[in-house]
Design brief:
This protein has 436 residues and is an alpha/beta fold. 34% of the residues lie in helices and 26% in strands. The strands form 10 sheets. A 6-stranded mixed beta sheet has the order 5-2-1-11-23-22. The chain has a 4-stranded parallel beta sheet with strand order 15-14-13-19. A 3-stranded antiparallel beta sheet has the order 6-7-10, with no helix packed on it. The protein starts with a strand and ends in a 7-residue tail after the last helix. It binds flavin-adenine dinucleotide.
Length: 436
């Protein structure tokens, strides 16, 4: 029996670890994880990688080493096709930077396949976005932004030291969801640290962040109270918050809004929505929705093929919310985590000839962190029974605990404890920001 999981992200890595321990180690099934990257970093941390407050090289998990420790195999590869009749997936040829082939195009056969390849930024076809804005879909894109940011700060510091001319570094972020909001606050922290670590000519007035949201408020998925509090906090930090402002196109160093207004910026980030990868639209005849998500049954098996499961951002499952409205399970880390748990149970049940379980999405609330400054959110279910509004230190602690819970699912208690301790030691030993 061979189970392949494609995508070692928030959901896929938790699933591979679980199945490796329960089936792989006992030689009851071969578990193979395939990912296009060598390492895993929990995606909700990407805005911290982008600002430099998190060093991806230190905080990432090596798939190969983790697989060895947890009873599953790992293959580096990018999924590019499938033959459902022969039960094989196709992995694209892998080339080095200089164009030489590292791995040729390959096939891998499976008995059960789990697709957990996440999502990509949706530019909704707005002209000029893909060419002129940075997306935060992967660690390499976040690192690219971080490098640009560091170089811009260094250049600006030199310019300010050489002349009295008014110069500023301008960042524009499109999308007032959690990513845009959190990145805005992180960037202000980054400026403070750059100034502290020697770029002293850069004062607060030399750095601007404009956060552009098409809807009437920031954080559309959260309550009015939270979005008002977040907007107030960001404005106090110095972020130029622009709600009800739709971007119609982008050019080099500027966003052009409806009505013709031009927002000029040295760095532009587009974080205004996600969709599943375009190639899923035509992937072995599996059904998809408008966001390219693979339609799944409540067991999380794809509608067209019970041997293929999908979970996380790339899975489309409708649920009925408490007001009786049908909504898609949201593309969030907690959904990926919960789906990984159900898929693990269902694969074990299939192997043990037991009936499959239906997935039930539990919304435990949302948390938004404004770097070290503060955090806001609402907690649902569990101890809070109804909805509990939290902010400040408590919200920040709850926010950090989400990552710890992911670490717990991946590493277990002892390693998570040691990793938490290592983070504390690193806070003392290492610079507070990645500076290059
Ligand atoms: C900046 C940012 C902040 C966020 N903050 C939050 C938050 O605070 N709370 C929250 O709940 N959610 C947050 N999210 C959303 C959350 O990160 C995702 O919902 C979650 O990571 C989805 O998990 P997943 O397992 O479906 O996919 P991912 O975690 O995205 O993992 C997908 C994996 O698949 C691999 N992959 C992709 N394509 C291929 C391919 N063709 N072949 C092989 N491998 C492939 C990728 O390398 C990756 O390892 C945030 C997202 C971003 C970008």
């Amino acid at each position: 029996m061979k189970i392949i999981i494609v995508g070692g992200g928030a959901g896929g890595l938790e699933l591979a670890t679980k199945l490796g321990k329960k089936l792989g180690r006992k030689k009851r099934a071969e578990i193979l994880l395939v990912d296009r990257d060598h390492t895993h970093i929990w995606k909700p941390l990407l805005h911290e990688v982008a600002s430099g407050s998190l060093d991806a090289e230190i905080d990432s998990v090596s798939y190969r080493a983790h697989a060895y420790q947890n009873g599953f195999g790992f293959k580096l590869g990018t999924l590019c096709g499938i033959d459902r009749e022969r039960k094989v997936i196709h992995l694209a040829e892998l080339k080095d930077d200089d164009g030489s082939v590292i791995l040729p195009q390959r096939e891998e056969n499976y008995d059960y396949l789990v697709l957990a390849i996440g999502s990509v930024t949706n530019d909704f076809g707005v002209p000029g976005i893909a060419d002129n804005c940075i997306f935060l879909d992967s660690p390499s894109q976040a690192l690219r932004f971080q490098k640009h940011l560091a170089h811009h700060f260094i250049r600006l510091n030199r310019q300010l030291s050489e002349s009295d001319a008014e110069r500023t570094l301008r960042v524009a972020i499109v999308g007032g969801g959690a990513t845009g909001v959190e990145l805005s606050a992180e960037l202000f922290k980054a400026r403070e640290y750059f100034a502290m670590y020697g770029l002293r000519h850069i004062k607060p007035e030399h750095f601007t962040v404009t956060l552009v949201e098409a809807g009437p408020k920031l954080l559309p998925a959260l309550s009015e109270r939270i979005s008002t509090a977040v907007q107030r906090e960001l404005t106090a930090l110095g972020v130029n918050v622009r709600v009800a402002t739709a971007v119609e196109r982008a050019e080099q160093n500027s966003l052009i809004c409806k009505g013709g207004e031009r927002i000029e910026a040295d760095l532009m980030v587009w974080a205004a929505g996600v969709k599943a990868a375009d190639f899923l639209k035509d992937f072995g005849g599996l059904e998809t929705n408008r966001a390219n998500q693979l339609l799944v049954e409540k067991t999380l098996q794809t509608r067209a093929d019970p041997a293929i499961f999908a979970l996380g951002d790339c899975a489309g499952l409708l649920r009925t919310d408490k007001d009786g409205n049908e909504r898609w399970v949201p593309p969030r880390a907690q959904s990926a985590h919960q789906m990984a748990t159900t898929v693990a149970k269902n694969l074990l049940n299939l192997i043990n000839d037991k009936p499959l379980q239906e997935f039930v999405y539990n919304d435990y609330g949302s948390l938004v962190s404004l770097s070290d400054y503060t955090a806001f959110g609402s907690l649902m279910g569990g101890l809070s029974r109804g909805t509990l509004r939290v902010e400040g230190r408590i919200a920040r602690m709850a926010y950090v605990s989400l990552y710890r819970m992911h670490q717990l699912a991946v590493h277990g208690w002892l390693r998570t404890l040691l990793l938490t301790l290592t983070d504390k030691i690193n806070n003392f030993l290492r610079p507070r920001l990645k500076l290059h």
